[in-house]
Amino acid sequence: MASSSLLTAFEPYVDIRFNAWFTIILILTYGCALRKPGLLLLVVQGVSATILLFNTTANLGEMAKTMALLPLGLGSVLTFLVLNRSLQTRYLSAFTTYVNIAVYTNIGMMVGTPTGGTFRGMCSKVTCIAIFVWIVKQGRRVGWKTVLVHKNLFVFTAVSKSWIFAHASYRFILLTLPCFGSGRRHRLLELYSLALTFALSSASNLPFEYFFGMADTLVVPAIAGWSSIATAFKIVPRDTVNDDLLLSRIGSDGDIFLGTVSLAIAAFVIIKIATTP
């Protein structure tokens, strides 16, 4: 009875059924990434083709974003990781450049996210710029040599643990903006990303911060692909929660609170930039 009430309370904010299925998908993805990256690459290619053929509800922008994340993003990374060691060594510099461009572009471009007339939206732009400058500074400090290959995984070495948690907090607030709709399917994105970062780190006995890049490369395309498949084949009902209702739940006080938190994150980041060599 208590669990049923708890689920009912969370339902306006989180798509419980969608996320329950996604948790299973992510566990399988984690296992394949560690042991069978070639199999995961085939799955990514198959899912991408399926989405192209059967997801008739997506507009051009949504389809382009999904393809950029799945075959071009995750697929490209997996293709490199299944190469033999000599080829990986030969092309590591090119792969590092590719990863750097993807990481810095994906973070920096979020400054263009529409504010929706909200205070938190305007504050998020400030925070985005600060977070972008901080990670670029960390990359520059290591001479842009940010990537190493460890077994079947790549590690991104030019990011600190503090940056990871600041970015997660910032992105959680960002995803509450009106342009992301109700956001019920993606509300737990940061939890998944941090959990997978920890799991990869534990399995590899390497520092937690090394696996932010690999974890996000798995989580973000996986949730985008699952959302497209779930919608195309009606596995999970479309999100019918009224966006205006959700926005009214945040309200003006919530908007100011989230905006203030975002500015606090920006202040923390700026201090780190100023005090860290």
Task: Give a written overview of the molecule.
With 277 residues, the protein is mainly alpha-helical. The chain has one domain. It has helices at 2-10, 16-35, 37-54, 60-81, 85-108, 119-141, 161-174, 189-204, 212-232, 243-275, and strands spanning 147-150, 153-156. A hairpin with a 2-residue loop joins strand 1 (147-150) and strand 2. The mean pLDDT is 93. The chain crosses the membrane at residues 16-33, 40-60, 66-84, 91-111, 191-212, 256-275. Keywords: Membrane, Transmembrane, Transmembrane helix.
Radius of gyration: 19 Å
| Total DSSP E strands | 2
Structural class: mainly alpha
Task: Domain count, please report it.
Answer: 1
**Share in β-strands:** under 5%
Strand order of the largest sheet: 1-2
Quick rundown:
This protein is an all-alpha fold and 277 residues long. It is built from ten helices and two strands; from the N terminus they run ααααααββαααα. Strand 1 and strand 2 (153-156) form a beta hairpin.
